[in-house]
Amino acid sequence: MTCIKPGSREYPLVVAALFLGGFVTFANLYSTQTILPTLVRQFHVTPVVGSLSVSLTTGALAVCMLVTPVFSDRAGRRVVMTVSLAATGAFSLLAALAPSFGTLLVLRFLQGAVLAGFPAIAMGYIGEVIHPGSLGRVMGIYIGGTSIGGMTGRFMVGALTDLFSWHVALVVLGVLSMVISFYFGRMLPPATGVAPAPFSLARAAAAIFYHLKDPALLGLYAVGFILMGGFVSMFNYVGFLLMAPPYHLSQTLIGFIYIVYLGGTFSSAWVGRLADRLPRSLVLAAAVISMGAGATVTLAPLLVVKILGLVLFAAGFFAGHSVASGWVNKRATINKSQASSLYLFFYYLGSSVIGSAGGLFWSRFGWPGVIANIDGVLVLAVGMAFLTAVLAARHPLWVQEKAGLGENTCR
């Protein structure tokens, strides 16, 4: 299979389609995050229970991503990703009609399950069709799409909730997602070099365990777990902080806070290119340190300073995610979709575990407790970035060993 390079006819189509797919992914995945205070009040649940509308979705996504590459091997990458995006929009429409919080949780869990068909396959698709020299750049653009989706989705849902209701907000998001899924399916070129494979859970399990034996990939999976956990902890509970005294921000203004994601849009693309030239461990560590610095700045009482801290935090997160996910694709030269699935499994597992744990710190210690938890785990991520570089150097030929699993990298 010939790699897609900048300047080719397919390149802008791939970039645009993946940007839109990333947009839909994050817009829907965290659609209830910005309205958590509203859901808590309406359904009379605690903040920790309310956060399950986010954690259950990411948990279902994490688990189901381990098996979705098997279906894409058979049905094709483009088909599975398109169906996933369309079904995600449909579940947003159903969630808008939820009569109880329990029903909402069930629908959000199912939405996470169908959404699993996009992220891991998209990352694997990038590794399969994009020239290695442009891998970091394209991965950065894709991550940038997720940041735009996260920002726009949260702002839109927050504003429409203030103007009408959260029901109307989810309906609008669902319709928009389904429209984008139609254009995605028409724009994205198929991964023509990946031959259809028979459905085999045994083959998928073999590929997963193969990657789990790679010490360097395990280090990257740990980094993804920590990055996403810290990120979700921040934005799960910052709304509670800013709606309380002395800030008293409205739901719409809370939605505006997510404009800080723009920092991540630019940082992910720029740092993705940087990681193609500099040692990935250094770039990754710098991004994580930026996250920690931004989190610490939010302890300042002045609102404008808190927002600046959130900008730095978001920029560091999306940059770190771009580098780590691109590094996974660079490291794994076979079964890239399974390698990416494992990365995102731990990534979203961190969202569920550390994100929910943040509620305990919020309830007991307030905002300083949330930040202490985030900064504590980020220190571990910095150490893992450098440890991963050491492990990769000690096992340079790991992924070139013959595992009988097939090879699907473009040339």
Summarize the structure.
The protein has 411 residues and is mostly helical. 77% of the residues lie in helices and 0% in strands. Helix 5 packs across helix 6 (77-95) and helix 9 crosses helix 16 (303-331).
Q: Keywords, please?
A:
411 residues; mainly alpha; Growth Hormone, Chain: A; 17 helices; 0% strand; globular
Describe this structure in words.
The chain has 411 residues and is mostly helical. It has one domain (10-400): Up-down Bundle (Growth Hormone, Chain: A). 77% of the residues lie in helices and 0% in strands. The protein is built from 17 helices and no strands. It has helices at 10-29, 36-43, 47-50, 52-64, 68-75, 77-95, 101-115, 119-129, 135-163, 166-187, 201-212, 215-243, 251-257, 261-275, 280-297, 303-331, 336-394. The protein is globular and about 55 Å long. The termini are close together. 58% of the residues are buried. The model is unreliable at 399-408 (pLDDT under 50).
- Stated plainly, the CATH topology is called Growth Hormone, Chain: A
The domain tally reads 1
Mean pLDDT: 84
Measured distance between first and last alpha carbons? 6 Å
Number of strands: 0
Shape: globular
Q: What name goes with the CATH superfamily?
A: MFS general substrate transporter like domains
Structural class: mainly alpha
Helicity, as a percent range? over 70%
CATH structural architecture: Up-down Bundle
Low-confidence stretches: 399-408
The helix tally amounts to 17
Radius of gyration: 20 Å
